[in-house]
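Quick one, tokens below:
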């Protein structure tokens, strides 16, 4: 088997929660993301032959690696569990960053193997297997990163258990600024700080903002989007995990963004803008706060990714 054979796929990073949709909203950005190469092999079963960009942190065991796990579960489901396939995993995005790193791997793994087999399953049919990969990584069956990474766009999950997932239209000009400060936050820790209960008052306010955001996105109503991008439940409980969060948010708002909050479980911080110039200016201002705090950070400015996982 030639080393050059096979196919390569990409699955993008994602911003989960989008301020007001904890565990139920997410969107994809163009970069960064994960790449996976797969090819048929003579040896029986799925094997990982190469992992790059992971600094030795990812396992080669097919049942322990997020990318191969989603693919293996899919192969078993279609009766091809013994099919000889080699997989290369190229991590092109940071771990524990709040950018959906494990979700991108899980999506890329199953999407790649499906493509290699001639795409017998649609993306919608692959979603469950990608979520199994995400569940392996963080112990919870949730699709708020997986769905946007697979489908692209902005996705709304009415119910994670049944994967009742819907796409929300992306208004023209909507741009994301995503800033990853190099501080470590484990998703489990960021979930542990959250209270199980909330007041009825906050529930009503958050529901109003969630509805407002969705209607604003459907109607390209940037003023409504701006009024709605305010998380009164999760952000106040998590922001103390991110040094300088309030200052970064203030810098973003002063630069004219529509809203700014924590990306997924953090530590990344995202902002949404109605044009690329504001998104770039905000990114510079936000990054300066971390530079002043002597915290290294990586900046990504991107339109909302519309395609999700692609073969390329
Ligand atoms: N919705 C999740 C959270 C995303 O905020 O904890 C991280 O997996």
């Amino acid at each position: 088997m030639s080393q050059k054979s096979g196919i390569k796929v990409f699955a993008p990073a994602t911003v989960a929660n989008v301020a007001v949709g904890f565990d139920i909203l997410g969107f994809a950005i163009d970069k960064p993301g994960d790449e996976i190469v797969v090819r048929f092999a003579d040896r029986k079963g799925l094997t990982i032959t190469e992992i790059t960009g992971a600094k030795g942190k990812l396992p080669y065991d097919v049942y322990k690696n997020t990318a191969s796990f989603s693919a293996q579960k899919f192969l078993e489901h279609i009766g091809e569990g013994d099919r000889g396939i080699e997989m290369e995993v190229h991590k092109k995005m940071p771990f524990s960053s709040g950018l959906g790193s494990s979700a991108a791997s899980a999506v890329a793994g199953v999407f790649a193997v499906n493509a290699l087999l001639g795409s017998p399953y649609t993306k919608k049919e692959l979603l469950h297997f990608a979520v199994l990969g995400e569940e392996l990584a963080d112990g919870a069956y949730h699709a708020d990163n997986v769905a946007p990474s697979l489908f692209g766009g902005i996705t709304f999950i009415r119910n994670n258990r049944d994967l009742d997932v819907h796409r929300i239209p992306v208004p023209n000009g909507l741009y994301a600024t995503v800033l990853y400060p190099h501080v470590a936050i484990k998703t489990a820790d960021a979930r542990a700080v959250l209270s199980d209960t909330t007041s009825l008052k906050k529930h009503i306010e958050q529901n109003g903002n969630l509805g407002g955001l969705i209607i604003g996105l459907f109607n390209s109503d940037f003023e409504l989007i701006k009024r709605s991008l305010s998380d009164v439940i999760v952000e106040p409980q998590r922001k103390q995990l991110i040094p300088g969060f309030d200052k970064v948010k203030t810098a973003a708002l002063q630069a004219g963004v529509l809203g700014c909050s924590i990306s997924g479980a953090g530590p990344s911080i995202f902002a949404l803008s109605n044009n690329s110039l504001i998104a770039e200016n905000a990114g510079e201002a936000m990054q300066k706060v971390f530079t002043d705090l002597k915290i290294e950070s990586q900046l990504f400015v991107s339109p909302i990714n519309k395609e999700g996982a692609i073969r390329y």
